[in-house]
Design brief:
mainly alpha
Length: about 450
């Protein structure tokens, strides 16, 4: 990470991650396509469960970002004892988090849906889905963390193998368990959740095996393990802002769902479809970021300004290209995208306008996503949290609520591009400040 030409290094590390995360996004889309065949209520139930899943993923990814930044910086400093402690303490943290979600899933799954809707079919299907993904949350936490350990040492190809393995298993099991094929009982939405958990479990075990056999820079051993408070504090100094970002996103999703439910459950289904479709664009950019973060952190530890700035510029350029392609697709063929999810006439009427309006965020999102990851790589994660919270809670939710008072659901969607513009301005301000404080004088 300190010698190869930056463009070659970024592409060699990011392309495997981008491909694997596109497959991850694809299996989320396929999962929803199968669920939509059950009915619109099933798609609404899964969409209402998404904020909780998002919190779990956010805690796993946020902790992984903290591990990644500290571990990569320690590699740049040649402090291998700190490298190993970063990995073991990080695993300890995510296992504690998974235990909390397991307990919550047992007791709160049905309550979570009853406070949102009185439609019994949505409540029962949502409860079954949420129970499975929370009670067995160790699966997703292990997968995320072990894959992050691989990417932190530049072994993104092996992280790709893990993600592909889990995604392919999930895609194969989805129709079998949802519709009852090959002798398996038809389990509907619950079957989709079970397929997801099995795929995550297999991906996590694959990533663990690859860490033990291929990741020689890290020695995973809990012999004589004691939590290291300094390591934990350092991981969370970078990771907590990322977690807060994801939690703010979950609160935003929950709030938007409540606003849309005041119009029609179909609007929630449309919102769910948009999120799954946009993930097919955002996931490659996140894969690019997963490669970018250790490169920046390593060279920050090594004190190489030129490699840091070149990595940032290239990442912004590639992210912008991906986002522009997505914007054009959402503008040109929104009806065809919605029909993938068995869209009704009402869903098409609401969804075509929604996809065209919300996709305006793609014009700014590439720069913002890269900017937030730069903050994290430089150990300035709080700036990322400020931008995300301002965008989603301070701007987006209040604006969406105010627009909803006009009585037209199609007006509500304009809250998204308005909030993204605010995010862009804040990102530019913070990126300039971090450059002047931490990069300029290296």
């Amino acid at each position: 990470m300190g010698r190869w030409p930056v463009n070659r290094l970024l592409l060699s590390m990011s392309i495997p991650m981008m491909l694997s995360m596109m497959v991850q996004a694809l299996y989320n889309i396929v999962d929803s396509i199968f669920v939509a065949r059950i009915g619109e209520d099933a798609l609404t139930a899964v969409t209402l469960a998404f904020p909780i899943q998002s919190v779990m993923i956010g805690i796993g990814v946020g902790t992984g970002v903290g591990i990644n930044a500290l571990l990569s910086k320690s590699l740049g400093e040649r402090d291998f004892d700190k490298v190993n402690k970063s990995a073991t303490n990080g695993l300890f943290l995510v296992w504690v988090s998974a235990a909390v979600f397991t307990a919550a899933g047992f007791f709160l799954s049905e309550w979570y849906f009853r406070v949102q809707t009185d439609i019994e079919t949505i409540i029962l299907m949502g409860r079954d889905y949420l129970f499975m993904v929370t009670v067995f949350s160790f699966a997703i936490f292990n997968q995320i963390t072990f894959e992050r350990l691989l990417s932190s040492t530049g072994k993104t190809f092996y992280a790709m193998i893990s993600q592909l393995t889990g995604a392919i298993v999930n895609i194969i099991l989805d129709p079998i368990m949802i519709f009852g094929l090959l002798g398996c009982p038809a389990m509907g939405v619950k079957g989709a959740a079970i397929a997801t958990v099995i795929g995550q479990t297999i991906a996590g075990l694959t990533a663990l095996y690859l860490n033990l056999t291929r990741n020689k820079e890290i020695a995973l051993s809990f012999r004589g393990f004691k939590p290291d408070l300094w390591i934990i504090k350092t991981i969370y100094r970078v990771g907590v802002p990322s977690i807060l970002m994801q939690i703010s996103g979950s609160i935003m999703n929950y709030g938007i769902n409540r606003i849309l439910l005041s119009f029609t459950p179909t609007a929630i289904a449309v919102f769910g479809v948009f999120f799954r479709l946009q993930s097919f664009l955002f996931m490659p950019v996140f894969g690019l970021n997963n490669a970018m973060v250790p490169i920046i952190a390593f060279n920050y530890g090594a004190g190489d300004k030129s490699r840091i700035t070149k990595t940032i510029k290239l990442s912004i350029s590639y992210a912008a290209i991906i986002m522009i392609i997505g914007f054009l697709l959402f503008q040109w063929i929104p009806d065809k995208l919605l029909l993938l999810f068995n869209a009704s006439e009402e869903m098409l009427f609401i969804g075509i306008a929604a996809l065209r309006i919300i996709s305006l965020i793609f014009l700014f999102a590439g720069f913002c996503i890269v900017g937030l990851s730069v903050f994290q790589a430089m150990g300035s994660g709080m700036e990322s949290a400020v931008v995300a919270i301002a965008r989603q809670l301070v701007v987006l939710l209040p604006v969406a609520w105010l627009l909803s008072l006009l009585g037209d659901v199609n007006v509500v969607w304009w809250a998204f591009p308005i909030a993204e513009l605010i995010s862009l301005v804040l990102c530019m301000i913070f990126l300039k400040r971090i450059y002047n404080q931490k990069i300029k004088n290296l």
